[in-house]
Amino acid sequence: MMTLERRPNIDGEDFHHDPVMESEIIEILGNLQPGVFADLTLGGAGHAVAALTANNALTVHGFDRDDVAIDAASARLAGFGDRAVIHTTRFDRAADLLREAGVESISGFLMDLGVSSPQLDVGARGFSYRIDGPLDMRMDHRDTKTAADIVNTYAPGELLDVLRSYGDERHASRIVDAIMSARPLSTTGELAQLVADAVPAAARRKSTGHPAKRTFQALRIEVNAELEILGDTLESMIDMLAPNGVGLVLTYHSGEDRITKDRMRTAIDGDAPPGMPTTSPYRWFFRGARTASDTELERNPRSRSARLRAITRVAS
Ligand SMILES: C[S@@+](CC[C@H](N)C(=O)[O-])C[C@H]1O[C@@H](n2cnc3c(N)ncnc32)[C@H](O)[C@@H]1O
């Protein structure tokens, strides 16, 4: 098994990530009741800093599995003293860690799913189809499975499954055939070129983004087991919402959006039979999903696929 122990060296100042839908999110977080705001995907703390600034009555507990993000967030949150508590962990441990810290309920939470700009933009992290680097893609450098392990050791059927389920890749079969003939592969550049060559020319011309975009997304989700822990973590955070508390989730692709919508709906519908009034304390904070404004889309292309969903617990 190939394991890269490298930990990229980016200090807080070099960690550039534009918080997505910041004004829409801060309008909500700014009005949360006094108490704890759990930021499950702290990243560079863009949303967390804005929330603490907008709402003096909040303390943030921030969680991230990526040491580089934790370093940047720690530097940015240092000025908030004990209003900011930082945990280096996968977010499925958040509810336990909050309780261990004596927090039984929270005023709000945010899950800004997916990757940060520095994860994508630093070639050594191996997430990018545009910048050459090792086929890595681990958010947490302590994890052992890399994208190279998947590409070079999975059986063809397993690879097909990954590309179809996590990338909705229509040309998965061609791509897997090409991988099987070419492996072992070791760099993102090799894989990106291989996918571009494997996809039919007509599809390549029609596609808006890079032909390897879906393959890279699928591998990243598999490397980091992103969807396996999302639903249960979301449920555990919804359970912790205090009356009037608000839970926000920003999703970036259909797989994570489906899980988010389903878990929120299950909490809201409760056990009531169809057509009967619900006894659940949860409601949609707003219906459907909100998307980034045209101005933000122009400024930050990464906001293009973002969908914001929100749930609230009614006052008791
Ligand atoms: C889109 S970025 C968040 C950016 C942040 N909202 C900001 O304003 O800077 C997502 C972050 O979540 C982290 N992350 C993704 N999945 C995670 C998980 N399961 N557990 C902990 N952190 C996770 C990533 O490492 C990344 O730093």
How are the elements arranged and paired?
Layout: H1 22-29, E1 35-39, H2 46-54, E2 58-64, H3 67-77, E3 84-88, H4 94-100, E4 106-112, H5 117-121, H6 147-153, H7 156-167, H8 172-182, H9 188-198, H10 201-206, H11 213-223, H12 230-240, E5 241-251, H13 254-269, E6 282-284, H14 294-299, E7 307-313
Parallel strand pairs: 1-2, 1-4, 2-3, 4-5
Antiparallel strand pairs: 5-7, 6-7
Helix pairs in contact: 1-2, 7-8, 7-11, 8-9, 12-13
S-adenosylmethionine binds near residues 46, 112 and 139.
List keywords for this structure.
316 residues, alpha/beta, Rossmann fold, DNA polymerase, domain 1, 2 domains, seven-stranded mixed beta sheet, 14 helices, disordered N terminus, binds S-adenosylmethionine
CATH class descriptor name of the largest domain: Alpha Beta
Largest sheet: 7 strands, mixed
* CATH-defined architecture of the largest domain: 3-Layer(aba) Sandwich
Could you tell me the number of beta strands? Answer: 7
Evaluate the radius of gyration.
20 Å
Provide the domain count: 2
Q: Distance N terminus to C terminus?
A: 53 Å
* Classification by helices and strands: alpha/beta
